[in-house]
Design goal:
Oligomer: single chain
Strand order of the largest sheet: 3-2-1-4-5-7-6
Strand content: 15-25%
Largest sheet: 7 strands, mixed
Order of helices and strands: HHHEHEHEEHEHEE
Radius of gyration: 16 Å
Shape: globular
Distance between the termini: 35 Å
Amino acid sequence: MDIQAALKNDNIELDEQFFNYVERYKEHLKKWNKIHNLTGAKNDELIDKFIYDAVYPVSFLPKVKNILDIGTGAGFPGMILAFALPQTEVILCEPLQKRASFLQFIKADLGLKNVTVANCRVEELEPRPIELVTSRAVTDTKMLMQLSKPFLHEGSRLLFYKGEKVFDEVDPTLKHQIIQTNKRHYLIIEI
């Protein structure tokens, strides 16, 4: 997959810096992944799909001043969103030391001023108002909403990267929207 072409095809315009960051990120991810097994994305094609999947929401999200990504893993979606949204503060919450170390390395290597890496469980983070809480492949929607609660205020949004089960997980009484692509369902819940 050519990320640049795929994003252009979807009318998602990102600057050259984004693609420079992505290339350096991919190089580091492949090296670290051989030793530390950070993610299941082991080859360029799968890494590119994960990156595309992570950044696609910039096509429909409003501007926010801050993002909290719960269970960032190797950087999907939080680190990729940080590349795309340099004016947005992005907090990457990752409890596993090896992944948090990788994220901290990427932050330092790329000189990312908008990224904070929190090496802890989300329950251990100091509560504060967050405009957008994201998560991918962590737990079900109900539990994610519970984990997000200390960070939500009126006007906050939740963006959960989900699969087909999203329709079974979402409470129909919530103000929500599901944006579907080929293999991904983006669940947006407004508070």
